[in-house]
Amino acid sequence: MFKINYCNQCGGKTAFRIAEGEDRKRDVCHDCGFIQYLNPRIIVGTLPTYQGKVLLCRRAIEPRKGYWTLPAGFMECGETAADGARRETMEEAGAQLTDLHLYALYDVPMIDQFYMFYRAEMLSGDFSAGVESLEVELFALTDIPWGEMAFPTITKVLRQYIDDLPSGHFNLVEARIG
Amino acid sequence: MFKINYCNQCGGKTAFRIAEGEDRKRDVCHDCGFIQYLNPRIIVGTLPTYQGKVLLCRRAIEPRKGYWTLPAGFMECGETAADGARRETMEEAGAQLTDLHLYALYDVPMIDQFYMFYRAEMLSGDFSAGVESLEVELFALTDIPWGEMAFPTITKVLRQYIDDLPSGHFNLVEARIG
């Protein structure tokens, strides 16, 4: 995930080692013994649709600046996953959603991330680019810019949606990526 | 979640404040400006069954030492959620599982946790208490010690299982606790 050098409790130097009672290497403080655990983080996102079109955002920030994505971001403390997905959609795409349906769970263990995507209908055709988006646009499913997608998770959930659409059955999908 | 006092990158003092470009208070380093994000953590667990009985562990550690729980713990970096659930079941209950089926997702925003429970059949009747368990036992569903359960999430997923059992339909449940 990233390198830890100091204890966030006492400011002492840490070492990446197996502490007593632990079964794997972690960042352990030389001075106070505090273990700074790192755990996978949850990315919550949505697949917002309106009149058969899907809402995509073009990223204004790295990584993958300039590429298209669905509204998604790190789940925050104190919120539910669905609330986080709603919040990200408002922040990045200025769009309000009706019923959210959990649709895809993707493990991405190589980067310690766990993705949760919700399908949702937009409350209206209103949307606007937030500070993390260069532009936001409704795309017909035949016009999705597949060659300019930001992340494999985004491509995967959109392809799943297109596969499921004819049947109208959107069963929850679980997959590992990478 | 817990209090951060020092930057884990440079060892400088941190302050809980809104950094430039952020929309909420976070732990920001006075010296190098590094933001130490805290995000909800995923708890992965299983509801292991064998010949109609369910496997419970009596906790050997705080919190709720001496109370009964299902095998569950923090998802680790580098693993999938299902792998983590399998690992916790082996570590705490010494039990091997066959097919895992995702069964319950619980948001517990008050303590910044997100629970994922899998149903699973045990590969055999073998099990044994790991270091975090005082004892492990197979319980008939009529004998579950409801008054001695460790956490509300555990009670909830067990009650759901008992509700679903007669129909044989174990649809994924999503709920918020607290």
From TrEMBL, chains A, B:
Its EC number is 3.6.1.22. Residues 39-162 form the Nudix hydrolase domain. The keyword Hydrolase applies. One of its GO terms (molecular function) is hydrolase activity. It comes from the Bacteria. Keywords: Hydrolase. It is an enzyme of class 3 (hydrolase). Transmembrane segments: none annotated. Gene3D superfamilies: 2.20.70.10, Nucleoside Triphosphate Pyrophosphohydrolase. This is NADH pyrophosphatase. It comes from Sinobacterium norvegicum. The lineage of its organism: Bacteria, Pseudomonadati, Pseudomonadota, Gammaproteobacteria, Cellvibrionales.
